[in-house]
Amino acid sequence: MIDTLRHKDLSTAAPALDNLLLTTISRYCVPCENNDEALEVAQYTKQCLLKNLAEPPRLGDLERELGSSKETVIRLFKRSFGITPKAFVANARIEKSKLLLKSGMNVVDVSAEVGFSDQSQFHRTFVKYTASTPRQYQKAISIFDNKF
C-alpha cells in the first residue's frame, strides 16, 4: 500500500487515505453487544443512517419499522456503538465532508451534499469536530502533500 502511494500523485493520496481510514473505521466499528436483538437493531439503525446522510430517517420512522420506542432505539444504538444516533450522523457527515473538501469541492456545495441546513450550521459543527474551519481544512497542507 505504501509503495503504491509513493508512486501516485500525492494530491490524490491524502483523500485516498482519508477514504481508506473512513472505510476501515466503519468496517471495524462493530457492536460490542452480544444480545442478538440489540445487535440487529443497532446494525439496522446504522445502515439506515448511513444510507442517506443528507436526510437520515427520523427516529420515529425507525421506531415504527423496528417496533421499539425511540428511547429503546437510542439506548441500544448507544450501548452497541458508544454514541447516540445523532452523534453518529454528525460524525459521519464531518468525515464525508472532509473527503469532499480535500477532493476540491466548494465549501457551500459540501455543506449541502452532507445534509446541513445552512453553511453556518456546517461551519459550527465542522469547527467543533475538527478545530479548524472547512476552508482552513481544505487548504491545509498535510505531510502526505510532500513530494518524495
Note the total helix count: 9
What is the mean predicted local confidence, pLDDT?
A: 82
- The number of E-state strands comes to 0
Approximately how much helix is present in the residues? over 70%
Radius of gyration: 17 Å
Walkthrough of the structure:
With 148 residues, this protein is mostly helical. It has one domain: Arc Repressor Mutant, subunit A (Orthogonal Bundle). It has 9 helices and no strands. The protein has helices at residues 2-7, 10-28, 36-51, 59-66, 70-81, 85-102, 107-114, 119-130, 134-139. The model is unreliable at 1-8 (pLDDT under 50).
Would you spell out the secondary-structure blueprint of this structure?
Blueprint: H1 2-7, H2 10-28, H3 36-51, H4 59-66, H5 70-81, H6 85-102, H7 107-114, H8 119-130, H9 134-139
Question: How is this structure best summarized?
Answer:
The chain has helices at 2-7, 10-28, 36-51, 59-66, 70-81, 85-102, 107-114, 119-130, 134-139. It has 148 residues and is mainly α.
